[in-house]
Amino acid sequence: MMTAAQLAAVESPDEQQAFDALIAAEQRIEPRDWMPDAYRRTLIRQISQHAHSEIIGMQPEGNWITRAPSLKRKAILMAKVQDEAGHGLYLYSAAQTLGITRDEMTQQLIDGKAKYSSIFNYPTPTWADMGAIGWLVDGAAICNQVPLCRASYGPYGRAMVRICKEESFHQRQGFEILLTLMQGTEAQRDMAQDAVNRWYWPSLMMFGPPDDESPNSAQSMAWKIKRFSNDELRQRFVGMLVPQAEILGITLPDPELHWDEDHWHTSEIDWTEFHEVLSGRGPMNGTRLQNRRAAHEEGAWVREAAVAYAAKQAKKAEAAA
Ligand code: BYC
């Protein structure tokens, strides 16, 4: 019997037509369906990068679990970081339905060959960073991910539905941390403003390069994996932030930001910084990967134990049959 990957490699005009018809009719492509090899590769690329982002994304906030200012804050932060682990697991599972193994994806990450979101290569020196991450990073994630709930690939779209529900709780908890700080002392307000100053521009970069420099967008939109372009989503995000910043009493660090007839006019984003971070030269790239590698090595005994347990169970089931 042929594997799904081998089947996908077989060129057939009928299969291509059936695939095109499903996409045109807004139907979902499922793992059992034939799909063009390039569609499969694009999904593996995007979903695995997304999964890695969730897993690496646990680190900046994990940094504050032991130092959260109250028991309640600690419990909330732990729950949030655990949610990110869960998101990573659904997404790895979704990618596995396309024929790549979890081991392969993990290896690509710890070898430094896989991309993950640029945003997680920045440090979290103060408690206000927890607020800024929730408000800005999870806020950007929601803008980007709500349309992905309608992604043409079934397992990805379905995973995104639950992820988005959890992200909206994350965003609110970040907003609430900032609101509490902004209602506190002058030092607390300064700390909140400083965190927003540091996270604002990197959060705009999360949406990816400008549309005219985004090599993957056109094809991904034609396949209905992406529903909106990087710049469209970035605009939507800025529009969401402006009234919320007003409620918070926080200034978005862009003196040029204003509504200009039909769009938000912003200062030029520093794309050199984005490319530096993507090339592994962001402030925290080295630490993030080093921690992920150490966790993988230290967890080897857990994986070995799980494999030994599964083998034992299989043997028992065989004996009982
Ligand atoms: N960072 O042609 P483009 C979370 C890459 S975690 C790094 O526009 P595409 C959370 C891009 O991969 C949620 N790389 O690509 C977790 C491509 O490189 P390759 C993270 C980036 O795929 C914990 C190249 O640049 N969200 O919420 O059409 C705590 C050209 O770009 C970035 C996702 O992963 C970047 N920012 O569009 C808190 C969303 N931007 O692969 C929160 C899922 C671009 O050709 N992904 N690149 O070598 C997507 O929606 C799309 O992949 C992107 C990029 C919009 C990011």
UniProtKB/TrEMBL annotation:
One Gene Ontology CC term in the entry: cytosol
Keywords for the protein's UniProt record, in alphabetical order: Oxidoreductase
EC number: 1.14.13.149
One Pfam family of this chain: PaaA_PaaC
Highest taxon of the lineage: Bacteria
GO molecular function per UniProt: phenylacetyl-CoA 1,2-epoxidase activity
A biological process term (GO) from this entry: phenylacetate catabolic process
Record InterPro entries: Aromatic_CoA_ox/epox, Ferritin-like, Ferritin-like_SF, PaaA, PaaA_PaaC
Name the UniProt record assigns to this protein: 1,2-phenylacetyl-CoA epoxidase subunit A
Source organism (scientific name): Microbacterium mitrae
Lineage, opening ranks: Bacteria, Bacillati, Actinomycetota, Actinomycetes, Micrococcales
Gene (name only): paaA
